């Protein structure tokens, strides 16, 4: 049995809480894309752990795997594992040999390219997390990347570095006219990354991901695929170029782990939806609350109440009403078997509540997204108003179940079920993992 958890919007939908909740029933939790650009806070035994790379399952005594579709920064990986060990945990993390390595020059180039885009006035600045994600995936597609398996063989690692580093140096020095530093010193890189390779081997952390997951499934293990980021920042299905460089959508669970789509597709695919919308970084957001002072004050309330500040970067997130055309797109792209709607508590007590039901573009009403970001930016939302609901006791509602939710909140959820033709499996009503109304457990 497999369960795939996917972000339906722009990331930060609160996937971590669901992965926590349902990951408890899994034996193995696998990330299939992205790297240390993701951020999730795991609360376990009253302790809070902020992680960006280690799969949250590894904090709970599960096996946490970073699949071949991930990009792995070994510095971050060992730093996070070190912090967890200092706090008395013993995380079991495995890394795919086919996963690509984020090298220090990738981070440097990420920063340089973002700066160049900003200076160019071209409007293509993405607002990346600066973790070197894009440049690493570029090298993967360009067949000049360094993979985890390469770190295990010092000679191969040297060959890879001797080919690629002079190119990166030329980019930094000759194209951008900047000074190269340690991040472009082959010997220093070789020393540090061969050391990481030895450590990965000694600690038994490297796996052939596809074989490993096959064997675990044959032995009867349940596997959860944990998507990072969200559908609208998917490099194929998102608002290109304001996207990350991987596939957070459900198809990525197959290509990013080596478990075939007939297997992942027989399992459950749950889309996580935040009850409103947030965005970090650039790009269109038709339902953004930024029209006037009143809207800005509302956005600021929601931001504070929902803790809408980047986990990785601390940046305040842009806030908007729920965008339903975006969710129709996400439902089609991911093939959801159910959705989980989060943060209904954040919407409680508002004076007004709207959703972007459709878009208007050139006088026509549209129910889904245009394929180009420029056209998407021209869309005007067609709003629907909903009755608001009062603040409620999250613990009592979690215990009382779906019927204990305020009637107006249930109407909101049922509207979504109807529009997306997908059942609501769970509803997040508070920040704690337990503060979730579960209607359907995807494992059963
Ligand atoms: P990158 O992944 O660092 O290359 O950033 C590309 C875009 O994806 C930027 O707009 C980031 O803000 C966004 N992004 C990357 N990771 C996350 C995430 O975990 N949550 C929300 N946005 C993200």
From TrEMBL:
Catalytic site positions: 12, 40, 140
Subcellular location: Cytoplasm
GO cellular component: cytoplasm
One GO BP annotation of this record: IMP metabolic process
Domain of life of the native organism: Archaea
Residue positions binding IMP: 12-15, 37-40, 129, 143, 229, 244, 315
Cofactor requirement: Mg(2+)
EC number(s) on file: 6.3.4.4
Gene Ontology molecular-function annotations: adenylosuccinate synthase activity; GTP binding; magnesium ion binding
Binding site for Mg(2+): 12, 39
Keywords, in A-Z order: Cytoplasm, GTP-binding, Ligase, Magnesium, Metal-binding, Nucleotide-binding, Purine biosynthesis
Note on how the cofactor is bound: Binds 1 Mg(2+) ion per subunit.
SMART domains: Adenylsucc_synt
Protein residues bound to substrate: 311-317
Pathways involved: Purine metabolism; AMP biosynthesis via de novo pathway; AMP from IMP: step 1/2
Ligase found in the keyword field: yes
Enzyme class: ligase
Listed Pfam families: Adenylsucc_synt (PF00709)
Reactions catalysed according to its record: IMP + L-aspartate + GTP = N(6)-(1,2-dicarboxyethyl)-AMP + GDP + phosphate + 2 H(+)
Family to which the UniProt record says this protein belongs: Belongs to the adenylosuccinate synthetase family.
Biological role stated in the UniProt entry: Plays an important role in the de novo pathway of purine nucleotide biosynthesis. Catalyzes the first committed step in the biosynthesis of AMP from IMP.
Subunit field text: Homodimer.
Protein name: Adenylosuccinate synthetase
Organism of origin: Halobaculum saliterrae
